[in-house]
Automatic annotation (TrEMBL), chains A, B:
The lineage of its organism: Eukaryota, Metazoa, Chordata, Craniata, Vertebrata. It is found in: Cell membrane; Endosome membrane; Golgi apparatus membrane; Membrane. GO terms for molecular function: antiporter activity; ATP binding; voltage-gated chloride channel activity. This is Chloride channel protein. It catalyses: 2 chloride(in) + H(+)(out) = 2 chloride(out) + H(+)(in). The gene is LOC108497945. CDD domains: CBS_pair_voltage-gated_CLC_euk_bac, ClC_3_like. Residues 652-716, 748-807 form the CBS domain.
Length: 812, 812
């Protein structure tokens, strides 16, 4: 089942709409075959569940004593959800509380039960430990493989083909002048032709570079297409949706994990303009989901499992950047939906374990935890806030531009024939990227290396082109270099960087959303870092040549070191990342963890804030939210306030001219009546009322439970025939002796459905749905049942109010 | 109105109980005079509010169109709350949304309105800036004054009496050998007797030390008692309660701010075993509250104001420790109740501004932001986790012991005559502290200096006693000192530290809760740091003398530097602070910001986790929660799960044998009937039903609105007499022509009260109250109104289920 099935081809799919009052004809086309998911949802596999009465009291509020029965003897399939459905948070949390209560009560009975209770309490921590270890190890593996394969595009190590360029030269015994040019490392032309210089050698290297890139990316897209369609993209929009309570089976499964890990390495190595940070979050969440199966507590409860996934997301960011605190805040701010304090603490633990596992593996060979370690020495001046804010504006503009263009391109991919040829698309984009990238050394190197180099502050011994300043050793004191005139190397680098910037800006738009694992963090940061470095060098040169200007007087005298271009690169990176993702605190904290100094938080924050404001002024949504909306996931955004003045009666079904709500009466319908209702409608549940005339609400009953119970009673209970009265009350009314026996179904009735009055403002209804995680809510007027609002209705209404077509938003 | 009035003397006070079904006879004794707060609550000052109909739709859900009326023409007093009442979060948030909607709609009309809309959007940021600046400045002022006054107890500077010891010696032009012994600084004996050595000089210095300490603390307690009784204590329990929605007028007022700032300096300088960190949070919250008055948006809305206070709390911790990220997480984890993401970002901004303001003031004279800056060089070994976990256990035991003893002592203070003599109590405790403290140099110095010294890793040039090791310069390489044998200085220091530990452990129990500002962070950290340093030195000596033992082999050979006693002190401090406050992530992050290295997070985390588990096993509550419960604040804990199997019907009023619920019918009661109900009962609101017979719920009306409306109608509306029918419906039933005119009161009816069914499990009801911030909730059965549950009922029920006497818990 492919993401394209979910996102591209089908007309719609069943989501949170636990019950709706319109007949659901939505069909989900999966891998070319049309499957009616509403059938899958509404018609339970009866043969599986004939074992007894289903005592599951789904729907609104519950957790009553009847719950305990099936805790003791769980029926297969009861309490689980179908694919593409929304979970009921209230019910899941109730179930967990029941389970916990049960264990606590038993723990007083025997020592063994006490031990069980203790182990249950610690299982969460153990799970976090495992997730941290696994996520850290996988991240290490990915880092090492990607590093090696990236270098493979340029050459091979004679001392052992499994060494990357850097390792190869470490292993070298011979002396060599240039840091990276050891004799053991052979470029492809050296290996094949025997020499590395000259036009032909260059062309050969160029050719090999493009060929390897194409090989890697084709392998990646074929693996994704063939084995795990969910492995493509960054995964963060889908994880946000899953954490909000949606179910996408297999999205966090073992196949996705395996394929995503492999294809991520391939995609990164192919030199495409993508990063591994977002996909690493997906990989970590897969680890979390798979490891949940070790513990019943988490395997069987969708709400508890989501707590684990939140923590896993934190571990993912933690290993992606080496920033455990930033990871936790990212999970809190960006990804998670329900984030209790207990999860905060556990996420932190998982993030730390993951970070330290990664450090023990030491993939960068420098004992550093962080991806881009930087150390700046110079404080910044208040006036520098002006260029920092300019970078913020650039970041915001770039973010808004990127989101618009990328969404437009993805929409085109979905709606035109373009989407039918994902392999060809990847081939073309890779070819263009590789061909454009090779001639420019700043695009030829891997993007994270590029960012590292841009962040770097030039020391005395730096040999890179970016540090080719005109040296004046007379004024040098110690390691602190004063501002100097740029040499020819710097000017060349500036041109190359400007070209690299243009290329990255455009190619990233087409890359993000292809059928390979692709993260956005690194390309966004690269764009910002290039812009920042360019601006930084410009300001530096301005200050060097014009230190007598009024704006420089007092803080930037001749021969002083006032401007750090690396800091500008870092600020630019933060601004662009902020513009694209609209992260705020987590972004600044991740950057803070990279530099390790509180000193630079203010510039970072100024840029991030400006960037967010500018981007928000152009378009409210971050890239992840935009993709959620593009794909029509049923995500009830917790950040945005619903600010319209509609009321519950405007949203509820039935609408004015619709037929009245289908209800079941508590003690006057026969088995046949109910069976007719169930057959004629496709709703997932029905309100139960005192009588049709009074419409006073008694409770809510699920279609699934109703069918199972009647089916079972007809088979096993004597005297239940079509004319038997179904009775949902405690004491059924006396019947004439000749009538058939009564079918008592109180046990399947949810006696505490959520209700609101018809006059309730929608802003409050939205708040209730969001905070309590409801699936549906009944609407009453003066105590009489009027209608029902499902999560689907709420989402449709929000889309409608935002002037978006509700149908195209939710079912595309 | 004193905190003692709130916490000690009275039998009870009216809290969140917006309506209860028992007659409230609770009296609040304030400053000796008995005031019936329920009267103050239930009988609005009518003369103030006669101007028109109150269109305020308080109670459950609202935010309807009628809301807009009073937005345009606010009536005095409407929409505000009485003292010691709980706010209705739903209503406040609705009101803010209405206000926001209004401004947004208007912004399209004119440029000025657009500017107003923009300035409204930015006012939150501006407010944060002001809070940061003010909190940072105050913290700087407090730091500088406390430093100076602490030194004043020992002597005075001849170069200028306003210099503290350290500054005095910086100003000195003469050369002197010992770091701190410059000729300009005169101890009291030097000043008075002319010499500083000898028994008599020692006794004189001792005497002056005690006298100054007594003077400071007496001044502090008298100021607190005389001017701002709310200024005592740490303030964090009360701030938690306020943030959860309770109103304590004046607790965050300007008098509290002024007096708390002054007395905090006095209390810290007096040498009592207390810290300034908790009170700084209170000071910052006062700043936040006062600055809210600058902006209508925050002044008039209790929910928005609480968002600001959350951010202010973050700024407070930020300046207390120089840890902005830790501050935000502290606010999130420990203090705040409602913490939307927008607040997270703003808190961070406020915390940063505050931290940088403090750094610009530079109170420690070392350009460091943090209170205890430490830099360790040596990595730790995995085996060292054993002593770290031991420190965690110690921290947990100390935390649990401290909480129990302190609560027992505070209870005794409240219930016996002890509480009547706060000044005497402070006098005695200060005298004992000062007398015991002077002879021991580790208790004589200020607690934060002590902690600094304990955290410090001994360098080559360190002259303190703690660093008097037997030097072996042959094995020294650079600045890294190997483990060495302890010299006599270390042994003396060990004994003194052990004595200091015992003293601190006991004196802190009696100090926290006295009528002076007193924080707990520093004393707790001191206890832990001493214990940690003792253990650290012990392990170090063990490793030095027994490096051939199996446990040391492989990582601690002879002459290696394996053990850093300062790290043990830091881990111990974290463990003890964790045991007392039960902070987790914020604690680790604060400690991380102090050291600035991810390296030591794992030891800190291991200790904090162990400490929390050990302390939780002995008693669930942290010190702040324990004080909240002791003082009977209506705080609905968001962290604890309610895990009992009771249902709404078990909690609601009326109970089984009570008289039925007082209701008003929608169109059949006369003005006289309603006035009788209002006179005979004291409830704050009444449900409105279709008819007494059907009991079908229509809405909820507030007593306050009812009285105002009737009063107003009788005066201004023709034909309204006692026999007039009151009608809450849209269309009133036709009456015979002879009858008096009908009083239409639909506008004051809340048409969307929250309801649950009687079968709803209490765990879900508690969840709803917590997440939505309700004040009351109506209970129905089959659409008929059965009863009501107020926040008070919920709190009482939780106390009852936890085997605590509900009355003594909530009204003491």
């Amino acid at each position: 089942m492919g993401l394209e099935a979910l996102a591209m081809d089908q007309k719609g799919y069943r989501r949170g709409s636990f019950q709706s009052s319109t007949s659901d004809e939505d069909m989900l086309e999966i891998a070319g075959a049309s499957v009616d998911l509403s059938m899958a949802d509404d018609d339970p596999p009866l043969d599986r569940e004939m074992g007894g009465f289903s005592t599951y009291n789904g729907g609104g509020m519950n957790g009553k004593s009847t719950m305990m029965d099936f805790l003791e003897e769980p029926l297969p399939g009861v309490g689980t959800y179908e694919d593409f459905n929304t979970i009921d948070w209230v019910r899941e949390k109730s179930r967990d509380r029941d389970r916990h209560r049960e264990i606590t009560n038993r723990s007083k009975e025997s020592t063994w039960a006490l031990l069980h209770s203790v182990s249950d309490a610690f299982s969460g921590w153990l799970l976090m430990l495992f997730i941290g270890l696994l996520a850290g190890s996988l991240a290490g593996l990915i880092d090492i493989s990607a590093h090696w394969m990236t270098d493979l595009k340029e050459g091979v190590c004679l001392a052992g083909f499994w060494f990357n360029h850097e390792h190869c030269c470490w292993k070298s015994n011979t002396t060599f002048t240039d840091r990276d040019k050891c004799p053991e490392w052979k470029s492809w032309s050296q290996l094949i032709l025997g020499y590395g210089e000259g036009a032909f050698a260059y062309i050969l290297n160029y050719f090999m570079y493009v060929v390897w890139a194409l090989m890697f990316s084709l392998l990646a897209v074929l693996l994704v297409k063939g084995f795990a369609p969910y492995a493509c993209g960054s995964g963060i929009p889908e994880i946000k949706t899953i954490l909000s309570g949606f179910i996408i089976r297999g999205y966090l499964g073992k196949w996705t994990l395996v394929i995503k890990t492999i294809t991520l390495v391939l995609a990164v190595s192919s030199g495409l303009s993508l990063g591994k940070e977002g996909p690493l979050v997906h990989v970590a969440c897969c680890c979390g989901n798979i490891l949940c199966h070790l513990f019943t507590k988490y395997r069987k409860n969708e709400a508890k499992r989501r707590e684990v996934l939140s923590a896993a997301a934190a571990a993912g960011v933690s290993v992606a950047f080496g920033a455990p605190i930033g990871g936790v805040l990212f999970s809190l701010e960006e990804v998670s939906y329900y984030f209790p304090l207990k999860t905060l603490w556990r996420s932190f633990f998982a993030a730390l374990v993951a970070a330290f596992t990664l450090r023990s593996i030491n993939p960068f060979g420098n004992s550093r935890l962080v991806l881009f370690y930087v150390e700046f020495h110079m404080p910044w001046h208040l006036l520098e806030l002006v260029p920092f804010i300019l970078l913020g504006i650039f970041g915001g503009l770039w973010g808004a531009f990127f989101i618009r263009s990328n969404i437009a391109w993805c929409r085109r991919r979905k709606t035109t024939r373009l989407g039918k040829y994902p392999v060809l698309e990847v081939f073309v984009v890779t070819a263009i990227t590789a061909i454009l990238a090779f001639p420019n050394e700043y695009t030829r190197m891997s993007t994270s290396e590029l960012i590292s180099e841009l962040f770097n502050d030039c020391g005395i011994l730096d040999s890179s082109k970016l540090c080719e300043y005109v040296n004046d050793f007379n004024s040098t004191k110690g390691d602190d270099l004063p501002d100097r005139a740029a040499g020819p190397g710097v000017y060349t680098a500036m041109w190359q960087l400007a070209l690299a910037l243009i290329m990255k800006v455009f190619i990233t738009i087409f890359t993000f959303g292809m059928k390979v694992p692709s993260g956005l963090f690194i390309p966004s940061m690269a764009v910002g870092a290039i812009a920042g470095r360019l601006l930084g060098v410009a300001v530096e040169q301005l200050a060097f040549y014009h230190h007598d200007w009024a704006i420089f007087s007092g803080w930037c005298s001749q021969g002083a070191d006032c401007i750090t271009p690396g800091l500008y690169a870092m600020v630019g990176a933060a601004a662009c990342l902020g513009g694209v993702t609209r992260m705020t605190v987590s972004l600044v904290v991740i950057m803070f963890e990279l530099t390790g100094g509180l000193e630079y938080i203010v510039p970072l924050m100024a840029a991030a804030m400006t960037s967010k404001w500018v981007a928000d002024a152009i378009g409210r949504e971050g890239i992840y939210d935009a993709h959620i909306r593009l794909n029509g996931y049923p995500f009830l955004e917790a950040k945005e306030e619903f600010s319209h003045k509609t009321r519950a009666m405007d949203v509820m079904r039935p609408r004015k001219n619709d037929p009245p709500l289908t209800v079941i009466t508590q003690d006057s319908m026969t088995v046949e009546d109910v069976e007719t209702i169930v057959t004629k409608t496709t709703y997932s549940g029905y309100p139960v009322v005192v009588s049709r005339a009074s419409q006073r609400l008694v409770g809510f009953v699920l279609r699934r439970d109703l069918i199972i119970s009647i089916e079972n009673a007809r088979k096993k209970q004597d005297g239940i025939v079509s004319t038997s009265i179904i009775c949902f009350t405690d004491y059924c009314p006396p019947l004439p002796p000749s009538s058939p026996s009564v079918l008592k179904l109180r046990s399947i009735l949810d006696l505490s459905p959520f209700t609101v009055t018809d006059e309730t403002p929608m802003e409050i209804v939205v708040d209730i749905f969001r905070k309590l995680g409801l699936r549906q809510c009944l609407v009453t007027h003066n105590g009489k049942l009027l209608g029902i609002i499902t999560k689907k209705d709420v989402l449709k209404h929000i889309a409608q109010m935002a002037n978006q077509d509700p149908e195209s938003i939710l079912f595309n």
